[in-house]
Write a structure and sequence with these properties.
The protein is mainly α. It has 2 helices and no strands. Helix 1 runs antiparallel to helix 2.
């Protein structure tokens, strides 16, 4: 179902998370950018330097999500 077809009680109140649509779009852009950076490490975690960089990026991503 689309968001506008859901009961109000079943959807997130995005206004409680983001001050406006621009803030939510900026969050999504940052999230995508960090995710793409992490994808660049595919097959390259065989050395300590790359692994450390990947884990730091992963930490940023999880912190962005509130984890």
């Amino acid at each position: 179902m689309k968001r506008n077809e859901q009961k109000v009680g079943n959807i997130w109140k995005t206004e409680d998370i983001f001050k406006d649509e621009a803030a939510s779009l900026a969050f999504l852009d940052t999230y995508k950018e960090l995710g793409n950076e992490l994808c660049d490490y595919d097959g390259k975690l065989g050395n300590a330097s790359n692994l450390l960089s990947f884990l730091k990026g992963y930490e940023k991503l999880t912190c962005l999500l509130g984890g």
